[in-house]
Automatic annotation (TrEMBL):
Lineage: superkingdom: Bacteria
Cited SUPFAM superfamilies: alpha/beta-Hydrolases
Domain Serine aminopeptidase S33 residue range list: 29-263
One Pfam family named in its UniProt record: Hydrolase_4
Xref: PANTHER family: PHOSPHOLIPASE-RELATED (PTHR11614)
Matching InterPro entries: AB_hydrolase_fold, Hydrolase_4, MAG_DAG_Lipase
Record protein name field: Lysophospholipase
Length: 279
């Protein structure tokens, strides 16, 4: 009989005093713990399907709502520095590691969270043996013109907390109509993106690509070929530049959220199989 996850709500305090909300999907005897970094404008609860599927493989999951997201404190869609997100994640990750009782803890980042996890690995902010990236947001779907970048950087200095719509079309999140409808109706999902967060993201994404060859940990890269929110070429470029042993799974026809898309069972099986291969 497959194991079932028991969900526990938790909270922690960020390094600068904000209350952060988290979820933990407990299994009786986890072989691995996944610590999930979610994407822009969403929250930990949207990874329930992934976590319950992983429980069937005796893999525990946990996720924190980053500041300005979900049930955590902070201005919606804004950070002063990208490092604040990295610190939030690293603080939560360390708390999981401290309670892991020797079970391996693996970072997993989706979209914006994929860039965040890559930054954390590059800067040594998390102690891990390997990591997982799902459609990391290294590049936007369209190249940003140089003049727009200059204007964005100016606005980031003058009005850093000014928020605009992230212009994400919910219909492009998943091919599953039920997932799209849930996304539209979810009161904890928002479309806010501050000019400061936007410029910080672009810088972090570029740093990840520029320093891909410095990555020393094995990783799994899960990429949706038909992602129209994030450019899959960013992942291909990251993979091509990386010199460490890694695996890249390319899913034809999939949209931005492979864990919430149609036929997700194959994605779950691939993730579990990779985690079974100890580094």
């Amino acid at each position: 009989m497959a194991a079932e996850a028991r969900v526990r709500q938790a909270s922690l305090t960020s390094r600068d005093g904000l209350r952060l909300h988290a979820r933990v999907w407990m299994v009786d005897k986890p072989r691995v713990w996944l610590v999930i970094a979610h994407g822009l404008g969403e929250h930990s609860g949207r990874y329930d399907r992934l976590a319950r599927a992983m429980a069937g493989y005796d893999i525990g999951c946990c996720a924190v709502d980053l500041r300005g997201m979900g049930e955590s404190q902070g201005r919606r869609g804004h950070v002063d520095r990208w490092q604040q997100w990295v610190d939030d994640y690293a603080t939560f990750y360390q708390s999981v590691l401290d309670e892991s009782d020797g079970v391996e803890v693996v970072p997993l980042g989706h979209s914006f969270g994929g860039v965040l996890v890559t930054t954390a690995v590059l800067h040594g902010a998390v102690k891990a043996e390997r990591f997982v990236l799902s459609n990391p947001a290294f590049r936007a779907t369209a190249e940003v013109p140089a003049w727009k970048l200059r204007m964005a950087r100016l606005a980031s200095r003058l009005t850093p907390s000014l928020t605009l719509s992230n212009q994400v079309d919910p219909a492009l999140v998943s091919r599953d109509p039920a997932v799209v409808e849930d996304y539209r109706r979810d009161p904890l999902v928002h479309d806010r993106l501050s000019v400061r967060l936007g410029t910080e993201w672009l810088s972090a994404g570029q740093e990840a690509l520029d320093r891909a060859a410095e990555i020393s940990l094995p990783f799994l890269l899960m990429v949706s070929a038909d992602d129209r929110i994030i450019d899959p070429q960013g992942s291909a470029e990251f993979s091509a530049r990386a010199t460490v042993d890694h695996s890249m799974k390319l899913y034809q026809g999939r949209y931005h959220e492979p864990f919430n898309d149609l036929d997700a069972d194959q994605v779950f099986a691939d993730l579990a199989a990779w985690l079974d291969r100890r580094p």
